[in-house]
Amino acid sequence: MKNLTMAAFVWLVFLVACNRKNTDEGSIVYQLEYQLPDSLKQYAEFLPKEAIVYFKGDSTVSIQKTNEESTTIITDRKTNFMRVLLKSPARQFVVDYNKNDQAEEIGQLPPHTIAKQNETKTIAGYQAAKYLAKDKLSDETTEMWFTKDISLLPNSLTMMLDSTLGVPLTFSINQNGMKTKTTVKEIKFEPVPANVFSTPAGYTPLSPQQLRQMPVGN
């Protein structure tokens, strides 16, 4: 009986280990929606409607594509590494950002207050808590939904948000008059594609300053 009990215990441990999700590696699919000022509405069809983020260990990579163009952002939290790959049918650029460049490129939310609300709902299979973020400059209030059911590494879409609130599942950000609502559609914990964090050959190096000074249309 003792041996049978031990065998059952070992089998139970094996089953739990096989079914345990590795939350250190996987992917997130985001839906992107935009509210554009009149001066930018003509560009709406060129904006990506979805973003895919892969994460593993300290690294993340976000990929946003339109019909012929893509923007890929690779980050490594441990080394403060950030690389942006810009691809179009005509040209391909790679831009590396140091820590100071990152702060300028990613920016930060305007001064705001954030208050937790007594409301929850399920988003992408996870229970999320509602927060209201109020911009102190414009008095504009937006909803944000965070979950603490899981823990995920911040990526290029979420790193400006307060990670102590949990994992953001729905949030809106206003950057220079362009409002983007981001919602998690799906989270998977599974091995990421091979070489997803690598840089393919054929990309022309640019500095962040050179990219900012590049005329629109190049």
User: What value does the average pLDDT take?
Assistant: 88
**How many alpha or pi helices?**
3
Tell me about the biggest sheet?
A: 12 strands, mixed
Radius of gyration: 21 Å
Helix content: 10-25%
Task: Give the CA-based shape.
Answer: globular
Q: Which structural class best describes the helix and strand composition?
A: mainly beta
Q: Terminal Cα separation, in Å?
A: 76 Å
The main sheet orders its strands as 7-8-9-10-11-1-2-3-4-5-6-12
Given as residue ranges, the uncertain stretches (5+ residues, pLDDT < 50) are 6-21
Strand content: 35-45%
The H-and-E topology, N to C, reads as HEEEEEEHEEEEEEH
Count of distinct strands: 12
Report what the structure shows.
- The chain is mainly beta and 218 residues long.
- The chain has three helices and twelve strands; from the N terminus they run H-E-E-E-E-E-E-H-E-E-E-E-E-E-H.
- It has helices at residues 2-19, 99-106, 208-213, and strands spanning 25-35, 50-56, 59-65, 70-76, 81-87, 92-97, 112-123, 126-135, 141-147, 167-175, 178-188, 204-206.
- The chain has a twelve-stranded mixed beta sheet with strand order 7-8-9-10-11-1-2-3-4-5-6-12.
- Strand 10 and strand 11 (178-188) form a beta hairpin.
- It is globular, with a radius of gyration of 21 Å.
- The model is unreliable at 6-21 (pLDDT under 50).
